Amino acid sequence: xxxxxxxxxxxxKTDILEAARELFAEVGYDRTTIRAIAARAGVDVALxxxxxxxxxxxxxxxxxxxxDPEEIFxxxxxxxxxxVGERLVRAALTVWEGPETTDAFRALLRGAISxxxxxxxTFGEFLSSVMIPTLTKHAGIDIATARVVASTxxxxxxxxxxxxxxxxxxxxxxxxxxxxxxxxxxxVDGAAG
Length: 193
Fold this sequence. Notes:
The protein is mainly alpha-helical. The protein has two domains: 12-62, Homeodomain-like (Arc Repressor Mutant, subunit A); 69-192, Tetracycline Repressor, domain 2 (Orthogonal Bundle). 76% of the residues lie in helices and 0% in strands. It is built from eleven helices and no strands. It has helices at residues 12-31, 34-41, 45-52, 55-62, 69-77, 84-97, 102-113, 117-139, 143-162, 166-169, 173-192. Helix 5 (69-77) packs parallel to helix 8. The N and C termini lie far apart (56 Å). Residues 10-70 form the HTH tetR-type domain. It holds the Pfam family TetR_N. One of its GO terms (molecular function) is DNA-binding transcription factor activity. This is TetR family transcriptional regulator. Residues 33-52 bind DNA.
């Protein structure tokens, strides 16, 4: 493989994104390496870092997320154990309904439940490899409890944004924070006790 800039109009950024999308779907987030992405895209490995920074940045590109959800959830989970449920739900709603993230998040949800197995697998790998470990580490809960928390959160997202069920669509963000925050706090506290 040649190093340096390609002659003519470069498609390297798009090629890298497509290679990452394929590899995340084929072998999962954990087992995909920057080197393998560069090889599949036919580019120098340095270009991957140049365009996307790191694997998380590349995953955000693949999933079209303009923010790092792990960073947002880590910030929400750091702090006292009491109130973690409300902070987590508020952080999720910030990502789900933020002006720069709402379209990307809804596309991500649609992709996760679509017939596109690659998108679903990529989303599932990210939940399993990044989000669940973030919950276990920063909320101090075990994997089984983190799965219950994650399924509760994404159940809410599914019913509010994809199904658009009135009982889930109509509550305000503050109402959801109060109801779901308390429920998630009970799950977290139950795991500790």
